C-alpha cells in the first residue's frame, strides 16, 4: 500500500526511504541537495529571464514557467511540513478503519485489497505518463538547443548557452531539473490524493454495507441477544464513521492548500500555455512538449476533481442508507446512536481547495471553461494590438 507513492516521494528527494543505512542516506542527501540546488537556481533563472523579456507574447509564456516552478517550491514546502500528518493518514488507513464484524470481515478485506491493487496500477500508469512527458521534454529540449531554436527566456549570466562541453551541460541541468522536479512533485501530490480517495472510498463502501446489515435478519435467536448484537455493530459503525470524518479533516489539513494551488496552476497554465502556442508559435521542438504538458495538465486536473467527487458520492450514499433505515423494535440507546450517525452523515464529506472550492466534476468544467475564456480574451487583446499597429504607421507617414 502506498509503495508507489513512497518510491516517488523518495525520488522527489525530500522523503528519504525508511530504514536506509547511514552511508546510503548520506549519498541520498547529497544527491537530493544537488538536485534541489539546480532546481532553486532554475527558479531564479526563469524569474530573471521573465523580467528581462521585452516581447509581450514570449513573456506570457515565461510567466507560465515561473508560476509552475514557484508552485513547485510551495509544494515541496507543504509536503515537508505535513510529513507527519500524511504518515498518520497512511497509518490510520492501514490499521484503524477496518470493519471487524466477523461475517463481513473477509469480504471487506478482499474489497480493500482489490481497490489497493487498482490504486497501485493507476499510480504506476500515471507515473509512466509523467516519465514520457518528461522524457519528451528533455529530448526535445536538447534538440532545440542544438539547433539554436530555444525561445524560452532564461537568465544566463555565465554565457554558458553558446558554449560546448561541461558549461553547456551544467546550463542544461537548469531547465531539465525544473521539468523533472515540477513533474515529480505534481505527480506525487496527484497520486497521493487519488490513492487516499480510492482507499477511503472503499472504507466508506463497507461502512455503508455494515449499516445495511443492521436491517438484515440475524436468524432464529432470542430477541435480546439479537438486539445486543445489533447494538454492538451500530456502535462499531458510529466509531468508524467518526474516524472517517477525522481522517477527512486531517486530509484536508494536509493537502487542501495544495489542491487550491493545483487548481490555480491549472487555470493559469492552461490559458497561458494555449496563448503561447497560438500567439508566439514556438518551434516544433518546443511546441510538442508544450502540447504534452497541456494534455497532462488536463489529466491531472481531472484526477484531482475525480478524487473529490468519489468521496462526495460515497458519503452521500452513506447518508441515504442511514436515513432510509427503520428499526421498530430497537432500544433507546440504539436510536440515540443512530440519530448521532445520521446527523453527522447529513453533511457530506468533501475534499476542497482550501475550503473555498469543492473538488468535483463541476469544478473541473468550471476551471476549463474559465481558462478558455481567459485565453480567448488574451487572444482578442493581442489581435487588437496587432491590427492597431499597421493602421497607425501609415497615418504617421502621411502627416509630413
Ligand atoms: C486492517 O486490514 C488490513 C488489511 O486490509 C490489515 O492488514 C490490518 O492488519 C487490519 N488491521 C487491524 C487492526 O485489524
Ligand atoms: C465493500 O464495498 C464494496 C463496494 O461497494 C463491495 O463490493 C464489498 O462487497 C463490500 N464488502 C462487504 C463486506 O460488504
Ligand atoms: C461542486 O462544487 C461546487 C463548488 O465548488 C458546488 O457549488 C457544487 O454544488 C458542487 N457540486 C456537487 C454535485 O456537489
Ligand atoms: C501592444 O503592442 C505594443 C508594441 O508592440 C506593446 O508595447 C504593448 O505591450 C502591447 N500590448 C498588449 C496588451 O499586448
TrEMBL record:
Stored Pfam families: 7tm_6
Keyword Hydrolase listed: no
Gene Ontology terms: biological process: signal transduction
Transmembrane segments: 25-51, 58-80, 126-146, 158-178
Membrane-protein topology: Multi-pass membrane protein
Compartments, as annotated in UniProt: Cell membrane
InterPro entries: 7tm6_olfct_rcpt
Transmembrane keyword on record: yes
Sorted UniProt keywords: Cell membrane, Membrane, Olfaction, Receptor, Sensory transduction, Signal, Transducer, Transmembrane, Transmembrane helix
Signal sequence region: 1-19
MF terms (GO), sorted A to Z: odorant binding; olfactory receptor activity
A cellular component annotation (GO) from this entry: plasma membrane
Family: Belongs to the insect chemoreceptor superfamily. Heteromeric odorant receptor channel (TC 1.A.69) family.
PANTHER family: ODORANT RECEPTOR (PTHR21137), ODORANT RECEPTOR 19A-RELATED (PTHR21137:SF35)
Name the UniProt record assigns to this protein: Odorant receptor
Source organism per UniProt: Frankliniella occidentalis
Lineage: Eukaryota, Metazoa, Ecdysozoa, Arthropoda, Hexapoda
Amino acid at each position: 500500500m502506498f509503495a508507489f507513492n513512497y518510491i516517488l516521494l523518495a525520488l522527489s528527494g525530500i522523503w528519504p526511504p525508511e530504514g536506509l543505512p547511514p552511508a546510503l542516506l548520506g549519498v541520498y542527501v547529497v544527491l537530493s541537495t544537488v538536485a534541489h540546488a539546480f532546481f532553486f537556481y532554475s527558479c531564479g533563472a526563469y524569474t530573471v529571464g521573465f523580467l528581462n523579456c521585452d516581447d509581450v507574447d514570449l513573456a506570457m509564456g515565461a510567466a507560465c514557467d515561473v508560476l509552475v516552478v514557484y508552485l513547485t517550491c510551495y509544494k515541496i514546502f507543504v509536503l515537508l511540513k505535513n510529513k507527519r500528518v500524511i504518515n498518520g493518514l497512511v497509518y490510520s488507513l492501514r490499521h484503524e478503519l477496518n470493519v471487524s464484524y466477523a461475517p463481513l470481515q473477509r469480504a471487506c478485506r478482499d474489497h480493500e485489497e482489490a481497490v489497493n491493487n487498482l490504486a497501485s496500477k493507476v499510480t504506476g500508469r500515471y507515473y509512466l505518463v509523467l516519465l514520457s512527458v518528461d522524457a519528451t521534454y528533455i529530448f526535445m529540449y536538447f534538440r532545440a538547443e542544438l539547433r539554436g531554436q530555444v525561445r524560452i527566456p532564461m537568465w544566463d549570466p555565465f554565457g554558458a548557452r553558446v558554449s560546448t562541453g561541461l558549461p553547456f551541460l551544467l546550463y542544461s541541468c537548469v531547465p531539465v531539473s525544473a521539468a523533472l522536479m515540477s513533474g515529480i512533485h505534481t505527480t506525487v501530490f496527484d497520486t497521493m490524493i487519488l490513492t487516499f480517495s480510492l482507499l477511503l472510498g472503499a472504507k466508506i463502501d463497507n461502512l455503508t454495507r455494515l449499516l445495511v446489515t443492521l436491517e438484515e435478519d440475524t436468524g432464529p435467536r432470542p430477541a435480546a441477544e439479537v438486539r445486543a448484537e445489533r447494538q454492538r455493530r451500530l456502535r462499531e459503525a458510529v466509531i468508524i464513521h467518526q474516524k472517517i470524518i477525522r481522517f477527512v479533516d486531517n486530509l484536508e489539513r494536509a493537502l487542501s492548500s495544495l489542491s487550491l494551488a493545483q487548481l490555480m496552476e491549472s487555470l493559469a497554465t492552461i490559458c497561458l500555455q494555449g496563448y503561447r502556442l497560438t500567439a508566439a508559435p514556438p518551434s516544433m521542438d518546443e511546441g510538442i512538449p508544450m502540447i504534452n504538458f497541456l494534455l497532462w495538465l488536463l489529466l491531472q486536473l481531472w484526477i484531482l476533481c475525480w478524487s473529490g467527487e468519489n468521496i462526495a458520492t460515497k458519503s452521500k450514499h452513506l447518508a441515504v442508507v442511514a436515513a432510509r433505515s427503520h428499526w421498530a423494535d430497537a432500544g433507546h440507546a440504539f436510536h440515540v446512536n443512530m440519530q448521532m450517525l445520521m446527523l453527522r452523515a447529513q453533511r457530506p464529506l468533501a475534499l476542497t481547495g482550501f475550503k473555498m472550492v469543492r473538488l468535483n466534476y463541476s469544478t473541473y468544467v468550471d476551471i476549463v471553461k474559465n481558462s478558455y475564456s481567459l485565453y480567448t480574451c488574451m487572444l482578442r487583446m493581442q489581435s487588437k494590438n496587432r491590427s492597431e499597429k499597421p493602421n497607425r504607421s501609415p497615418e504617421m507617414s502621411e502627416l509630413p
